[in-house]
Batch of 2 targets.
Target 1
Amino acid sequence: MSEIFLSTVLGKTVINAQGHEIGKLWDLIMVPGEVFPQVSHLLVKKGSRVLALPWKRISLFNRYVISVSGTSSHTPEYLPRENEILVKRHILDKQIVDVNGAKVVRVNDLKLGSYKDHLCIFFVDIGFRGLLRRLGYERLGEKIASFMKIKLAHQHISWEYVQLLEMNLSRLTLTVAREQMQELHPADLAHIISRIPAKNIQTVLNSLDTETAGEAIHELEPELRSRIISQLDSEQASDILEEMDPDEAADVLGDLPEEKAQELLGLMDEEEAEDIQELMEHEEDTAGGLMNSEFLSVSSELMVADAMKVVRLLAPDVETVYYIYVVDKEERLQGVISLKELILAHEEEPVSELMTTNLKTVGVESTPEEILEIIAKYNLIAVPVLDKEEKMAGLVTVDDVLEMFLPYALKRRRYHHH
């Protein structure tokens, strides 16, 4: 059997082995397959009745004729089952995520084909051509396009790059699509989430690990991310917040009603919750509100070899690893070493002899303008934030402070093309 578009067979007459009409093709029942989703039954409408024909009984299936083999005259009536997936009803005209193109698209048609004796979905047609085909105007469209000297392009997405948005359909999503969703940039994921119906957002988040889900949620506009976090199960929401950097989690919780924020903090790891709570106490437009409280620091009394052990232990949980900050016994900042300097240094060399001591810092109450001035003047990637006791409280990166000066739409474009 050659590949065939769904729109060209829907409504076609289905006949039995004797050539008598059984009814018209009304829909197809899909089930997960070995490689692609498979058709298990054809639903055929005859008057007010809908009959269910198993695929194994179909002898011919093309745009001209659909016929049933065998002499059996009995065809059971279709009885809908919970979580059953019908192609026309549940997939056609619905929104899906194209994980390869990182966008939300509409299904205008589907291309079916044979794989190991099963009828399967191979491609989704999302183009104008597919819409014209559905309406029966594809040939007319081709003639008009030819006259105007333009090409009526095929816009297909292979099923392996399709992420279905309805919860009960997600089992038809192939592993490769789930994996690719994980690999998308958080800004692309946020772009997708912001363009799908609210009822489908949970499906997208469920296809991501908690860390990726957290990064995507942080990229959303404050109003939308607050709404999503509020609608999630509290345990899931707290798990996602725990995987965020503390400054990002503080941003999200700061937009929630106080009661909801405290509920989620209460479900989080105690140490994580304390860090976030501390950040939330600072004004948003100060260094204290912008900083990340997770950074790499080592004792000034360590040798390079021991400092490297500390860095290896802490680095997986820290966003910025370009610099290692050196502190004394009272946690007061003494100096800084770049990661490159530490790697190239002799193992027995004291950290205190390697570090740069002429540090540029800001206080927790410093304004974004003051921070940006220091970062720009001294060409820094990040600047340490000191509390009133001169202890290091956190780190403000150039990204953090730039976001304060970018309009939201411009910021989204900036990260979207990152």
Target 2
Amino acid sequence: MLPRLFFPFIKISRNRIFINGRANQKLLILGFLGVGICIALYLATWKTVHYFQSQNELGIILSMKIFQMAWITIFAMLIFSSMITGISTLYLSHDNECIISSPVELSELYEMRLATTFLNTSWMVLIFSVPIFAAFGVVFAAGPLYWPLLIVSIPATALTATGSALLVTIVLVYLFPARRTKDIIFYLTLCFGIFLYLIFRLMRPENLVNPEKYGQFVEYLSAVSNPAGPWMPAGWTANLLTTYLLDRQIDWLLLGLVVLTPFVMAIAGQLLMEGLFIPGFSKSQESFGGNRQFKPSRNSNKNWVWIFRKETISFLRDSKEWSQFFMIAALVVVYLYNFKVLP
């Protein structure tokens, strides 16, 4: 990756911090306000977790469940914000024409956009999540290895979320012109809401406060002790730190997944960038798609073929139809899952 690609970003950041050689007073005020928010988050989290931890074994399990849900919620928020920022940085940035016309490989452009998107969208989460997870470590008297694990896990998980978001962004802009930002943001907002709904529904949080539905208390403890989101990178991070907080043991498999997943996402993003970026960027410069080729229609005497084609075209053109499709798909998934977990 060419270091000079970062020069504009570094200069812009420096000009935001320093104005005419002096520190920006607004940023200083916001910095003091941020310190106050961090202290408030730490105290509120410490009080809540300490209350649960002082209870019986069930209180400890519930506090760990809150710990896991916090990781998954932060991960989902990072994906959403990175997708919104990725549209602007990858496709609508004013310096794209200069960079693409220069002898710069697409993989280098992707690495630069990945790093800048990560810094722009994750810095606030990196700062304000530390006091929350630090409070858990203080309450549970975590050993000395908890803090290095936390320092590694937070940026690794945030980088995984950014890489995943850019992957989805590249595919979305390849399918839809980036100039239709309003529709894309609408899709992203809808997908984010459905994503959160599916996460919390599949985690079944109602089981945390409903032990009466289980025949024995042991079954209830087993149900709420299940790892949260074992198929998600945020779930891997949460389960890694939870295991260390409770047992003082490091799950090396989870640690490897947490550390290596950002690199896997970066490699996958580079491959998609080389294959889909130029067509997507061309579409973002044209109103109807740019590289669309019109083909002669095939004649058919069957009425249902023409009706099917008409309905398909109408569905693809009208963005309002997509929201209903996504919502119905989410409801189908949730209902099938509910039937699966019925006793």
